[in-house]
Amino acid sequence: MRIPKRPVSFCLSLFSPEFPRPLDSRISFYSGFHYKTPNFSFAKPKQIHSTGVNQLHMSYMMDKGQKAVLGDKRLSSEPMESSDGVQEPCIWSSPEGGKDEAELGKQIFCNRSLNMRNIIAVGFDMDYTLAQYKPETFEKLAYEGTIEKLVSNLGYPEELLGWTFNWKYMVRGLVVDKKRGNILKMDRHKYVKVAYHGFRELTKEEKVGSYGNTLIRDAFDEPDYALIDTLFSLAEAYLFAQLVDFMDKNPGRVPAKVDYARMYKDVRSAVDMCHRDGTLKQMVAKDPIKYINEDKSIVPLLKMLRDSRRATFLVTNSLWDYTNIVMNFLCESRTLDACNFDWLQYFDVVITGRVMYDSVIDFDNIFSAKPGFFHEESNANLFEVEPESGKLINTDNGTPMAQVGNTSPSITLKKQNECCRVFQGGTVRHLHKLLSIESSSQVLYVGDHIYGDILRSKKILGWRTMLVVPELETEVKLLWELRDSRKALQLMRSDRDHIEDQIHRLRWSLDFEDLNADQKQEKSALVEDLELQRNQVRIKHQQTQRECHQNFHKVWGQLMKTGYQNSRFAHQVERFACLYTSQVSNLSLYSPNKYYRPGEDFMPHEFNILPM
Ligand SMILES: Nc1nc2c(ncn2[C@@H]2O[C@H](COP(=O)(O)O)[C@@H](O)[C@H]2O)c(=O)[nH]1
Ligand SMILES: [Mg+2]
User: Which of 127, 187, 229, 453 is catalytic?
Assistant: First the structure.
């Protein structure tokens, strides 16, 4: 249990021929770049202002009678918006000094101490980290593309084509029980607290029947379960729930021999194909603003890091052609026709996903660079990409050519002032060598995928990590607004526990003590009275807790809590992310030399002793 520092009272190329082909099969021994890059030398750091975020830690004084002033600038979680709705850059170390205080929803939260002075390279994931997709359009596209494939390729009925997608329904952190057709939310002990079969909520008995009584605790992992741990999975989870409902109500309408698990597999493979065959990427490439949020803070952030003498790198599972389009949009507001490579000036090294020709469903382990990229013992080859043509250097007639001394990287070090180099595949050893990184603890990597970006990089490698959780912005805002209800809930729980203790004592006395008839009658009456009180408090607590959760999400409640315990997702965030925040650009609200420190750890036995 950690309390914040201040007192808290609590593919193949995915493009069709109309797009430039990224990978040419010609051999190329190209060793330099023609495109013009602006001066690439490390600039002298700008003056760092001292009004940093040391002063920013919010104090959630819930029991000191301090009223929250939501109009108060410190508490506002509205993004800084310009008139056109685009978030404006806000740079801590800008000559203007940036904003004095990070708003609550934009703060960076710390699980594990991280002194930025020890970090010499900051890396970024691209999709859903630098590029925040708009789920209402992007995930809808994935949903519709998936249905189209289910109908045309896998024999599902045509009426699916008329279904609609509610992009707000599913949330991260849920678990799909593939065999039973259920979607689950569990707490950090993996107790299933919220469960739906399709869209029907399971009764308590059903929940206990399926998940409560097993002698061996279920791990709730693959292959029987699937984790909804990236925003990319929201559409498939929703479609799966719809199909479960559909199958229950229309037996015989789904293809023969298809059960829930098979249905999930079909959905997964159709989603996978949408990511590989251009269904999604071609549409994004044509009209990025429809699918990706513009973020004018990204370039200033990258500049700030580079000015502070950090190397910057990008490691994405997207292929080079798509990466170039997305990064052009994010950094230069350029679209397909006007794409160039100017954005590379903000990075020292870019590593994109590698092409796999096998069509295997478990995309995480097969086609991508990550998480395999983080395995030092992996011998995936690294190929340099020629940005203009997308051609791979070090290829033999298009066939990847094994590098000499496969087990140790044979690439040359990046020299200072040399422009950014683009690679495909490889492993973390290559990256370390390219950036002259001696210890993995000198790297901070920012990603959105707890499993693919954060868990592996931190656990296996020892990189320092920052998880981007866009949902956090609303979550902390609501936490603040609902602080009174949460305080009331705490009191109800403590009342309930107190009453129950009294009941137990009285019962013990009635059963084992030598009491006369009057005493027995008196104690029995007291027990009856207390039981009535306990039931009232219990019902009130349940109701209030449900209502409180529903403020966060009508179905699944608060992202980081299940009941009143940390959710499984929150538990993973706490264990694997050194830092977490709502948007990558929040980094620019803090000094690049900041020492992030977690709040003090608290054990339950300390709560009632230390004044808070
Ligand atoms: N083949 C599949 N690709 C997928 C799937 N879900 C996401 N993706 C792609 O992965 C990368 C993620 O990039 P990163 O920058 O976050 O590392 C992106 O290109 C997605 O399109 C999938 O199910 N199958
Ligand atoms: Mg990502």
Answer: 127
ipTM: 0.99
Q: What share of the chain is helix, strand, coil (3-state, %, to 5)?
A: 40, 15, 45
Paired sense of beta strands 399-400 and 349-352, if any: unpaired
Q: Using one digit for the tens of pLDDT, what is the confidence trace for 66-116? A: 433 333 333 333 344 444 445 555 566 555 555 556 788 999 999 999 999
Full DSSP string of 41-82:
SPPPPPPPPS--GGGT------SS-PPP-TTSTTT-----B-
Per-residue burial over 315-346, b if 16 or more Cβ lie within 10 Å, else e, is: bbbbbbbbbbbbbbbbbeebebeebebbbbbb
Whole-Å CA distances, 136 to 231, 234, 449? 12, 11, 20
Distance 456 CA to ligand 2 centre (A): 14
Is the CB of 272 within 6 Å of ligand 1? yes
What is the distance between the alpha carbons of residues 323 and 126, in angstroms, rounded to a whole number?
8
Taking the C-alpha atoms of residue 510 and residue 525, their distance in angstroms, rounded to an integer, is 11
Helix (H) or strand (E) holding 325: helix 320-332
- Binding-site entries for Mg(2+): 125, 448
CB neighbours of residue 293 within 10 Å: 15
Domain with CATH 3.40.50.1000 in the chain: 292-403+416-469
What's the fold here for domain 292-403+416-469? Rossmann fold (3.40.50)
pLDDT of residue 77: 36
Which listed ligand is nearest to 371 at the C-alpha?
A: 1
> What does the alpha-carbon distance between residue 91 and residue 73 come to, in Å, rounded to a whole number?
18
Q: Which amino acid is at 340?
A: N
Tell me how far the alpha carbon of residue 367 lies from the centroid of ligand 1, in angstroms. Answer: 9
For helices 260-276 and 135-154, angle between their N-to-C axes, nearest 10 degrees: 110
Q: Which helix (H) or strand (E) holds 430?
A: helix 428-434
Judge residue 347's burial from the number of C-beta atoms within 10 Å of its C-beta, 0-12 exposed, 13-18 middle, 19 or more buried: buried
pLDDT of residue 78: 38
**Pairwise CA distance, residues 516 & 287, whole Å:** 84
Residue 453 CA to ligand 1 center (angstroms) comes to 12
Say if ligand 1 is within 6 A of residue 323 CB: no
What pTM, to 2 d.p., does this model score? Answer: 0.82
Catalytic residue check, 125: yes
Binding region: 125, 127, 448
Confidence of residue 8 (pLDDT cuts 50, 70, 90): very low
